[in-house]
Prior knowledge:
Elements (H helix, E strand, L loop, with lengths): L2 H15 L8 H9 L18 H12 L3 H17 L1
Amino acid sequence: MGIAERLAPTFLQRALDEPGARRVPNANIDDLKREGLLRIIQARRNGGLEVDMVTQLDVVAAIAEGCASTAWVVGVAHAHSWLIS
């Protein structure tokens, strides 16, 4: 089980705990940062992991199993870190 799969149930529980929050919990962002999941397609020369796009999509899909909103934010963050990098 990968990091994203391990985090998905936690993200789901947080979404269930605050169904009307209309935002991704700060704790989700903290978890993503701590585990390095926000920089997976960022270039290595800029501190990223530079994984392939299939792996990136697998990570986003695994996160979406728990919280689609968090997965959307991750996908947008990945696109930006890749483009800027």
